[in-house]
TrEMBL record:
Keywords: Signal. Residues 1-35 form the signal peptide. Gene3D superfamilies: Sortase. PROSITE patterns: PROKAR_LIPOPROTEIN (PS51257). The keyword Signal applies. This is Sortase B.
Length: 247
């Protein structure tokens, strides 16, 4: 089994397009801590520490400009992967009130693919429109002492199997399988951003927002972002290049 440990510097396309967002993210880390709704244009950010004091399951905040994707990001401390599908960030019964990850993902956002549930399906369905997709390029994840910027590279529908069940992201083998499947999606409603049709590898860091398709509950919508901003330099992981089938 061969392992490497690195933070891979992503090959950015049109770097100037990203620079303003990365600069804002770096500035936000040093802002005074006030619990406000995030608004990158005005320098406001979420005080995740204060939110964690109210509910220790909250570890971040996910935000996409000019959308309703502006939600606390949770993970059940009890290991209940479905708790926040039916509860809000105050642990009260509700739906689509917060985003959440399953126990298979880590709160430090260092997994190959952070799979985010709980975003309203109607919000993700909008990304299947090419004009909307082109106009909404970044996903920001506010954390304690850091703001991660993900560039939205793909939006498509696929079978309804849970991603963490379908792919073993603990191995490079499973990561590459996800990448290959993403690249194989080709239809009028399956979009890959120009210039990103190839080049991804298990060394990258992805965030995938997923929800059941409103038009076909047997399928799910995936909106995939690739990490392009990590001002605090905290995102790193070990990569297992062995094939689990050989063990």
């Amino acid at each position: 089994m061969r392992r490497t440990r690195r933070y891979k510097d992503i090959e950015r396309l049109s770097f100037k397009r990203f620079f303003a967002v990365l600069l804002v993210a770096a500035m936000l880390v040093g802002c005074s801590k006030e619990a406000k709704t995030p608004d990158p244009e005005n320098g406001n950010f979420v005080d995740v520490h204060a939110l964690r004091e109210k509910n220790s399951d909250i570890f971040a905040w996910i935000y996409v400009k000019d959308t309703d994707i502006n939600l606390p990001l949770c993970q059940s401390s009890d290991g209940d992967d479905y708790f926040y599908a039916t509860h809000n960030a105050d642990k009260e019964p509700a739906t689509n009130a917060c985003a959440y990850i399953e126990a298979a993902n880590m709160q430090d956002m260092c997994d190959f693919n952070e799979v985010v549930h709980g975003v309203a399906p109607s919000e993700l369905e909008k990304f299947l429109d090419k004009v909307y997709f082109d106009d909404h390029q970044f996903i920001l994840v506010y954390m304690e002492g850091n703001v991660l910027a993900y560039y939205v590279i793909a939006a498509y529908t696929t079978e309804g199997t849970r991603l963490v069940e379908k792919y073993d992201f603990s191995y490079a083998y499973g990561c590459q399988q996800f990448i290959d499947d993403m690249y194989s999606q080709r239809s009028m409603t399956n979009i890959i951003r120009p210039g990103w049709e190839q080049g991804l590898s298990p060394e990258h860091f992805l965030l995938t927002m997923t929800a059941p398709s409103p038009s076909d509950p047997s399928k799910q919508i995936l909106v995939v972002g690739c990490l392009v901003g990590d001002p605090a330099g905290q995102i790193d992981r070990e990569i297992d290049w062995s094939n689990p089938e050989d063990e």
